[in-house]
Amino acid sequence: MSSLQEAPKEIYNLYLQTALNIVTYFEDESQEERLKELTDLAEVSAKLDLKLKKSCEILQRLSAPQDDFNGNQEVIDHAQTLEQFTNEIEGIDTDVNKHKKFQDFQQQVQVLLENTRLNNAANVNDDELVLTQNDINVIDPITKRRINDPVRNTVCGHVYDRGSVEALLKANKQTRCPVAGCANKNYLQLDNFQTDILTKRYLDRNPHAD
Ligand SMILES: [Zn+2]
């Protein structure tokens, strides 16, 4: 079960890594088309993901034993349940604007492209990348050391080192975003983390910078 739950997270990390590869290695006219194909694929995954999650919820609700007015458990009418299930899954809302990982994927690709275009326009060396308004922070807010494997909190956009934030959560599940002044007051959730490709590219290109 855990591998099934992990699957959507891994899929989006793969899509992000692929987008980074496309931007890095296809600096020609095919780049746009390749990114479009990848985005279409990511969108299909987002729709399937929404449908699967909602179907499980519906199935659980419909198959839960119900008490009748006398407090006795009603016998489930399987044919009726199946019909209701079929009707309900047809009406599932698969609006990908509500899929956080897909939204984050799109946003990251956009920022990466903008950053790449700015750098190309400025004609700078790889090791003096122009920083956009989204300043790249390579220091992990938890250990105060250079990030090794950057993950982004899709709720607030802050970036941490994967290892250190996972260790933090292992020690205490009720941990909030460690960045000072962060407006996100919810507890951190592993499920909300995605690879941060802009930071990843910067770290790859600047192995000694901090
Ligand atoms: Zn934050």
From TrEMBL:
Principal localization reads: nucleus
Query: What Pfam family does this protein match (any one)?
Result: zf-Nse
GO BP of this protein: double-strand break repair via homologous recombination; protein sumoylation
Name recorded for this polypeptide: E3 SUMO-protein ligase NSE2
Task: Indicate the secretion signal residues.
Answer: none
Say which species the protein is native to: Neodiprion lecontei
Domain SP-RING-type: start-end pairs: 125-208
Where in the cell is the protein located?
Nucleus
Organism domain of life: Eukaryota
What keywords were assigned to this record?
Answer: Ligase, Metal-binding, Nucleus, Transferase, Ubl conjugation pathway, Zinc, Zinc-finger
- Pathway where this protein functions: Protein modification; protein sumoylation
Give the UniProt family note: Belongs to the NSE2 family.
Q: What GO annotations for molecular function exist for this entry? A: SUMO ligase activity; zinc ion binding
Cellular component per GO? nucleus; Smc5-Smc6 complex
